[in-house]
Design a protein that fits this description.
The structure holds 2 protein chains of 2 kinds. Chain A has 10 helices and 11 strands. Chain A is an alpha/beta fold. In chain B, the strands form 3 sheets. In chain B, strands 2-1-3-4-13-12-11 form a 7-stranded mixed beta sheet. At the A-B interface, α2 of A face α1, β8, β9 and α6 of B.
Chain lengths: 251, 199
Amino acid sequence: MLARRIIPCLDVKEGRTVKGVNFEHLRDAGDIAELAERYSREGADELVFLDITASHDRRATARDWVTRVAEVTRVPFTVGGGITSARDVEELLRRGADKVSINSAALDDASLVNRLARSFGSQCVVVAIDARVEGDAWRVYRQGGRVATSRELFEWASEVTDRGAGEILFTSMDHDGTRRGFALEAIARLATTLPVPVIASGGAGAVEHFRDVFVDGKADAALAAGIFHFGQITIPALKAYLAREHVTVRL
Amino acid sequence: MNVTIIEYGAGNLFSVRAAVERLGHVAAPGSTPDDLRAADRVIFPGVGQALSASEKLRATGLADVIPALRVPVLGICLGMQLMCERSEEGDTEGLGIFPTAAQRFGEGCKVPHVGWNRISGGRSPLFDGIDDGAWFYFVHSYYLPVNPLQLAGCHYQLPFCAAIGRDNFLGCQFHPEKSGDAGERLLRNFLAWDGHGRA
């Protein structure tokens, strides 16, 4: 029986975490490797790092932090942000990342998904999709949710899966940051129709929301940032709660 | 101790190497027959596609050297599958160390099998100190069927082989280098094992 995965997400800028992180006993709350090690020790099932360094500030050496994370992290991790080519992916995997997450680059050129899946295997290609409800449809956004596209969520998710995406990371922009729970209906539709795992993101604010996203949303994994970083919810407490609620988790 | 990680262009070695080094050993990549013959422990990792990986092993001469090794060898994921007779993936001929063949998961569940799953019945020095039902990280679309050389089992859609052993050769479908405490213990057990006796 596969465990439902709990995934903290960290924003990275120029090799450091940017979102305030409020952990006790950290020497340097902005140090990405120390945080990664801490989360992996606490029972995070995977980690996602979103590199938000502006593309014009990104130099070849700017991914050094990936190597430092890989040295200390004993669970899989995914790197997203600014990935536009097979060369970017090759470098990240060589530095020890397990998967990469692409978003705008896939919307620019959907065949990138095919090429990455063929070169590196579907297992390391995550397609991230940001969407919000407009009228009666879920519209896909690009560039971190700033720019609307003509794509519709379910069609786009289905297309990238056909092209070889190994996982879908869906963020509901309507729910993100609200801490009022996940977009359960949309997540359930993705999770029950796609042939690949679905990572749900956006809206986590309480342990009950995680139960709901696994039980009602049928998600394979749930991702959150702020509530973990500020310690409102600790991963051991969350997993203990989920186990009591009969959700299969790795303890 | 000379721990050598086979480098043959199939997936990154970084994570395996980092995991070995966290245990206090030096791990060197090995890409030639001489590298492997000089090793005290050999780890055969692999992520990617079986046929292209197999072709690379043959082109470099490693395909002949690996089955003749007498030191402990641990195949991980695709590495283990390549140590079998065949893989359904690309209809690939393997190294023939384990008399079984990798098959693709069927319809009816999400493929690849990705995430944390529990293993059962772990028997072998490899699993010393690891609880029955311990969680390990898997990511694969092909699997080995249950077989007589099995050292541990797992279940996803059907029961399948999570670890296998024959003489000095061991293989695991999961990724110990990504499996937290349990994975670290398994790697420590492998490095401590002399390759003789109960496998």
